[in-house]
Each structure stands twice: as C-alpha cells, then as structure tokens.
Specification:
The protein is an alpha/beta fold. Helix content is 44%, strand content 14%. It has 18 helices and 15 strands. It has a 7-stranded parallel sheet, sandwiched between helices. Helix 3 runs parallel beside helix 18, helix 8 crosses helix 9 and helix 15 crosses helix 17. The protein is globular. The N and C termini lie close together (6 Å).
C-alpha cells in the first residue's frame, strides 16, 4: 500500500505532516479512479452519504460542500437524512438527490456524548435503532447504492449497520475527536471498538481526529481535511476576482468570532479577552456570530450576562446566525477561534483565512494542521484570556502586518483547503474501496 518504507513508518508513528504527505502520494489520480470505475460497470458510483440530522452544524456544512463538488462522471451522490431541515433544503438547491427516512425522536435527540453502552443497550432505544437500520438497508438496496459513506456519530452506527445489512462497503467519515476530553470516556471506548468492526474504510477530518481512533490497521484509513468553496466572485468577462483583502479603515475595527454558541467553543473566553482589548483599543468593536443548538440556551444567557457585567454591551454585538459567512468574515479586522477543547478540525478557521483575514486561534486539536503560528495566524493556548487578548492587540496595532498575514492565510487555503482538493481525495478513497470490492488488483 505504501510507496516507501519511510511513508509507512511516518504513518504508523502518529499521522505527522510527513505521514499525511505520504498518504497523498498514494492517492489515485482521477484517471486511475475512472479506470476502476470502468471496470465496475462504466457508470458513476452511486454513493449514499448518510447524516442523522438536517441541522446545519460544521459536519453538515462539510457534507453539503462535498456532495455538491463530486465529479459527476465518477460519483452520483444520494444524501440520506433522518429528518427534514435546512441541510435538506440547501442540498436540493444544489441539485443533490435527498432521501429523508424519519428517525424516532427519542433516538434522534440523543446527544452524541451519551452514545455509550448504557444508551445503546436500553431496550427501547436498541429496538428503534435496529428497526431504523433495517429501513435504511432496504432503501439502500432499492436505490442500487454502491457505497455507504456516513457523516456523523449516529449515522456511523445506524448507517454502518444498514450498509452491512445491505452488503455494501461502509466508509466512516469521522468528524469528532474520539477522546475523553471531547466525549464521555464510555462513549469514546465504545466508538473505538465499533470503528474496528463496522467500516471497511475510515476517513478522518484531521490527523488529530485520526490519532484518537487508535486504529490497529492504518492501511484502511486516510486523513482528508474538509475543504471550503472558493469565495472568489465571477465578473462579467468570466474571470475570477479575488475578494477584497484590505481591512476596513473607514470604521472601527471589528474583532469577530463565528460559530455555534456552546461552552466548549469558548465564547466566554473571547468576551473576557474583548474586555482587555477594549481597554487598549477603545474604538474596537466585537461580534459573536452564531446561535445555540442542542439545548445550549442557558450558556447563551450566561455569556450575555457576562457581557453586561464587563461593561461591553455597547461594543459587543450578538448577531445571531449568519446566512453569508464570507461577507461576515470580510467585515472583520481580526477573526478569532476560541475553543477550550481541541477542535476536530477548524472549519471556521479556514473560512476566515479564505476571506483574507488574520486569525487568532487556540492551539489544540486539528487547528495546528491549518494555522502556521506567526505566518498565517497566531496560535494561543486554550482557555488563556491574556494570550488571546495580546495576539488580537498585536494585529490591531499593525494593520499592514495583519493584512499580510491575511494574504498568506488565503494562499494557504487555495493551496491546501479547497473543496476541490477534498472531493478529489474522497473520490480516490471510493476508487480504492471499489477496486477491492470488484476484486481488481494492482499496486498504488
């Protein structure tokens, strides 16, 4: 599988940057993937992409981008969701086929942190889960699906069982760190066992996520970073125009944080840092962009009260959900990522970098795979208010250096984190799995 002993050793040593490059070297090209496809029947592979929710979280945004970016000669995506919602609507706008197979609310609303042995062994939940897996399996056969690609922890279990029952290859796309600082220990242990039993192949959204799986057979896995769509605007003559990378100068600088409102996302740390920054830069303004999901309204009330207590009500705005993140990001002088637990990847970080904005991000999880400290952004320790405030102040004090950092960040996204990069690598994984299924041989 590995083209060199060096690549194999680096891979097994813990998914270093060297290992990631070795993986990339062993990915098939598009022409090779088409060759495998031709051997499988000369039609696009029908791939069921399964997610349990239609709410727009980070994993769902990544799924939307991926499903709309496949080469139609290689892949016919069919997205299977367990509820209606914004994701289904957006997929249909992109002309992606959507199937909704409703799941019992008792299972659908179970938090991912409680997907441990106790919840799985509850008779009622187990029966409903198995029945739903049977319904999904029947639908997979009727849709003549070639591959099953699951996108969330619940989908991994339910969709994975369904794929096995339908006798289709199963690929788990793991977008959560399976670690005790991110999930309850029982949940993490159960998931690590299941990842060795259900899927034929595992994709992780970062090396940090992959490490937490503790896989014994790393040959059937790949790190594929979640890419984003280009923010370039198309003008009348058909050429692409870069987004305006100049920082706003005719208005107070805005320091912003975009993301779901949740304690582990660190909005409270950002607010405390904002108080320190405001003392040095009284003209600065601050924005928290996002809304709470999954029962986190109490935390939103807590941080609104904190804002008032620190005397920031006139300079810090809660904007709610943004329907145009690129436009929101372009209004920032500095974009901040404040998570206090290691982020599986850091989608919002590459969105800010793509908009040409300098980034201050916490140094944990998959974020160091995106940001080169001091070059494309500043990395600060998690839950460190003073370090975050100092990094923000450095950027506000030197707009020219901040703009240059933003330009380097955008180039990094173009080079490494576009959705086209992601789609081609996932297609190569499909080709690898389909080649094995069809009994084809050859070196890679």
């Amino acid at each position: 599988m590995w083209s060199s002993e060096r690549g194999r050793r680096a891979h097994e040593a813990g998914w270093s940057r060297e290992a990631e490059l070795a993986v990339a070297e062993n990915q098939m090209t598009a022409s090779e993937a088409r060759g495998v496809q031709a051997g499988a029947g000369r039609r696009p592979w029908r791939v069921a992409l399964i997610d349990h929710t239609a709410r727009m979280g980070g994993g769902e945004v990544a799924l939307l981008n991926l499903a709309a970016s496949f080469d139609p000669q290689l892949v016919k995506p069919i997205v299977i969701l367990f509820s209606e919602g914004p994701l289904a609507e957006e997929l249909r706008k992109q002309q992606v086929e959507v199937e909704v197979i409703p799941l019992s609310g008792a299972v659908l609303e179970t938090r991912k942190g409680s997907l441990g042995a106790r919840s799985l062994l509850k008779v009622g939940v187990a029966i409903k889960t198995l029945r739903h897996a049977l319904r999904v399996a029947r639908r997979l056969r009727k849709l003549r699906v070639d591959l099953v690609h699951t996108n969330s922890l619940k989908a991994d279990i339910i969709g994975g069982i369904a794929g096995r029952l339908a006798r289709r290859p199963v690929i788990w796309h793991v977008r959560d760190r399976i670690a005790e600082d991110y999930l309850p220990p029982t949940t993490a242990r159960v998931f690590r066992r299941l990842v060795r039993m259900i899927p034929q192949y595992v994709i992780a959204n970062s090396a940090a996520t992959m490490e937490t799986l503790r896989l014994k057979d790393v040959r059937r896995s790949a790190v594929v970073h979640s890419g984003i769509r280009s923010f370039a605007r198309i003008v009348h003559d058909g050429t692409a125009m870069e987004p305006d990378e100049r920082l706003p100068t005719d208005q107070p600088p805005v320091v912003g944080l975009v993301g779901r409102i949740a304690r582990w996302k660190g909005q409270h740390v950002f607010i405390h840092a904002a108080a320190l920054v405001h003392a040095r830069f009284p003209a600065a303004r601050f924005q928290i962009v996002g809304t709470p999901l999954f029962g986190e309204q109490d935390y939103e009330r807590e941080i609104r009260a904190l804002t008032a207590t620190l005397g920031l009500s006139d300079v810090l705005e809660f904007t709610g959900f943004s329907h145009d993140v690129p436009a929101t990001m372009r209004g920032f002088a500095v974009a901040v990522h404040a998570s206090i637990t290691g982020e599986p990847f850091g989608q919002v970080v590459i969105e800010a970098m793509s908009a040409g904005r300098p980034v201050v991000a916490t140094n944990g999880g998959g974020v160091p795979e995106i940001v080169e400290d001091g070059v494309t952004g500043f990395l600060v320790p998690m839950d460190d208010v003073r370090a975050m405030a100092e990094a923000i102040c450095r950027l506000l004090a030197d707009p020219a250096a901040a703009a240059e950092m933003g330009r380097r960040g955008r180039q990094c996204v173009i080079d490494r984190f576009t959705i086209e990069h992601t789609a081609r690598r996932v297609e190569a994984v499909y080709a690898d799995v389909m080649r094995e299924r069809c009994g084809m041989t050859g070196s890679s």
